[in-house]
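Researcher: Go.
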Amino acid sequence: MRKSFYKRRREIDQQLLHRQYEQDRDGRAIINMRVEDDRDFLSVYSPNKNPMISTEVAEFIENHTQTIPPNQQLTLRIYGNCIDEQEKIMYRSATKEYYSAKYYVNDRDLKRNNLIVLVLTWVGILVLALAIFLEYRQDSVIWSEVIDIAAWVLLWEAVDISVFENRSLRLKRMRYMNYMSMKLEYYPADVIGKSKP
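Model: Structure:
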C-alpha cells in the first residue's frame, strides 16, 4: 500500500513537472475563456467612472493562472459571439482597472509591512540592549530574561513579516502587474473547439 502511494505520487510529480501551459507567439501563457453571455462580465459597482470586471471573471482568471509562474506574462483569449467592438475596448480597460486597484492595495500593504518591520527591528534592538544593560547592572535575572525574551519575540516578528509575508505580497504584486498588462484577444465561439488561432 505504502509503496503504491509513493509510486503514484512520483508519477503525479513527474506529470506536473513536464506539464506545460499553452503559449502564444510572444511567449505569453494563454488563458482560454468561453463566453456565451457577457451580461455579467462587468461589475455593477465601480469606485470611479471606469468600469471594472466582475469578481466572477476575476476568479476565473486567477484560478486558471495558479499553475503558471507569477512572472509569466499572460494572454486572455475570449471565445464568444456576444461581444461587440465597443465592449472589447471596455473589457480591456475594465480588466486593467480591476487589477490596478488590487495592485494599489497590495503595494500599500507592502509599504505598511516594511514600516512595521523597521519599527519592530529598532524596538527589538533597543529592548535587547536594555536586557543586556539590566543583566550587568542588576542582580534580577528574572527581569533580564523576560526583557530578553520580549526582544527576541519582536525581532522574530520583524523577520517573519519581512521574509514570509512580504514574499507572498511581492509574488502577488508580480501577478497583478501581469494581469494589468495581460493581452486580450477575441475569437468567435466556434474556433475554440477546432484548431488554435
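Model: Residues 22-191 form one domain.
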